[in-house]
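Continuing the series of single-chain predictions for the mutant panel. This is the parent chain; the variants come on the following pages.
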Amino acid sequence: MRYGRYTLADIPKTVHGGQAWKTGGIEDFSHNLNPFGPPECLPEIIATAIDDIGHYPDDNCTELKASLSRSFSLKEENIAIGAGSSEIIRNFPNAFIERGEKAIINRPSFAEYSQQCRVAGINVEYNELSEEEDFRINSSRMSAELKKRVKALYICNPNNPTGRIEPRRKILEIVKECRDEGVLVFLDETLLELVPDHEKVSCMKFVNDYDNLVVAGSLTKSFAIPGIRIGYGTASPHLIEEMDKVRMTWNVGQIEQNVARILMTEHMEYVRKAADMMAKGSKKMHSELEKTGFPVGNVADSFFYFCSLKSIGMKGSEFQQLMLKNKIMVRDCASFGERFEYFVRFSVKDEKRNDLFVDSVESVLRSVR
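Parent structure:
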């Protein structure tokens, strides 16, 4: 006898980048982390929580919420804390979308949105992003989708894996239209802090103006600490209250709370420095890749690239294996859907590693010509 919900039978496990650490000796361009790595002061920050781990952590994350409320100019009631933004992603459909209702997710986009919707028994429809439109949201097509009895819309900005950033005005226009249609919006800004002047794009501070908006963020990418699970969501107090009902008790440990509070209040310059470096490095990296004949496409809006290798007749999986011979890992994007089997994603790092990446690409192209 097979035990388990029949609705889960055909749900595959999600695939993510950032797996090169398992092999050792590989430079990992498949993840979207701060290239500086974790801050050097991290062990000292972790040590500040040692005296408190003999008791249960603060279930309300009071001090952390107070710090974030000052950073975002919001009230503590506007903030939810999660074990990574992944928990915020999981809690959203469980709090707001009934089984059998419909959510719209752009494709390609972060796989956890559809995964958690399907686990919750929610019907997923995809808004297909077009390569001809540079994988940007077509507002007219989106408007038509929103009129089909939709309960929620997911937007990732910058979008993962495409790296494209939609301007704040466009995002808020979509949020307003969704509000008029009675549609909730989950806006994932997890990758945005690693973009210069991200404050001009972020919609975090507008959650009290739109009672249908939830905005998610995380420390994972900004501070390169995926092994410490800490994320947050901002929304109107009512939405936060509803999400809190499905949150696991003591979901964030005291070490994570201390790390998040101190990093967010005292070390954001570390993130800004990385964002500026990658923005400058991206232009050079793009230019050098074009010279090799690699189909790099347009300059990235963010700090990672999503490229089709169809023009050189190479699938992403093949390119990934060839780059691994040079001890470099890229993301094969076939897991985002069959039409993306020729796509790869790779990040921008510091100048030395970017040059190493370009040299490796040139070597791969020479070997197949």
